[in-house]
Amino acid sequence: MATHLDLDVLRSFVAGVDLGSYARAADRLGRSTSALSAQLKKLEEQLGVPVLRKSGRGLVPTAEGELMLSYARRLLALNDAAVLAVRGTQLDGRVRVGLQEDFGEGLLTEVLGLFARTHPAVTVEARIARNLALETALAGAELDMILAWQAEPGSDCVRQLPLCWIGDPALAEAWLESGEPLPLVVFEAPCVMRSHALAALDAAGIPWRIAFTSSSLAGIWAAVQAGLGLTVRTRIGKPPALARLPSLPALPEVGITLKQAPGAGSEVLARLRGIVVERLAALCDGIDGKAATA
Fold first, then answer.
1. 110: Cβ–Cβ under 8 A, 6 or more apart, which residues?
2. Domain-located, residue 2
3. Could you read off the pLDDT of 193-244 as tens digits, one per residue?
4. How far is the CA of 67 from the CAs of 7, 40, 73, 147, 266, in angstroms?
């Protein structure tokens, strides 16, 4: 007898994984946490395998769950595209979105391409900038939505990624053995990752110096590849020639926030937000799945 998966259950499963919390997913979907738990139990009963496992205080996909997650995204995307096509819904208007530089290359290209194919009558204006500029533009109603690094705890966090030291392993070892201050390549202050890097080194008693500052991510990567020092980032956009350096002090995770301007709640923005969350989850899942030395 054929097994028919419930798309509503799959949507809850994907939302829980994307938001990193099924309590948050329940709130987003307008359901109770117990209702979502019942849906997930139903999914596991249908598949005959567990799709989630405990990790700390939360739940993460099992190997089978990761596979199901990939199929669920495709099934939901196909379902949503079919509904739009049959209804003949043609959204129009304008939406303004801002993204941190780390997301400007791969994620922005995918999001804009997918959104343009689905809603060709909508004009999308995109801005790439650093956190402070994005927050200022959002507060000033110059942008409708921003994707940025989380500077302070809040409810807008949609994903967490580990920070890591990145650079040339041979140079890093030589610098540490020399006893001289560790050269750092960082953004100009204020910068979330710069603050975490300095705090970690101070806590470990490792001397440091700012060897190079930049106002752009391209400048950061160029300086590290030139051997001017080490930096702290996530592995998003890391040049292949550089490596993660696990021998340096441990760093915390950094949150990714997706914020909307007050009063910005159009259907166009909701559709774009859904695509951003979906593609961001795929990007982060791909990074989490890489080897630790990637």
1. 279
2. no
3. 999 999 999 999 999 999 999 988 999 999 999 999 999 999 888 888 899 9
4. 16, 15, 10, 27, 33
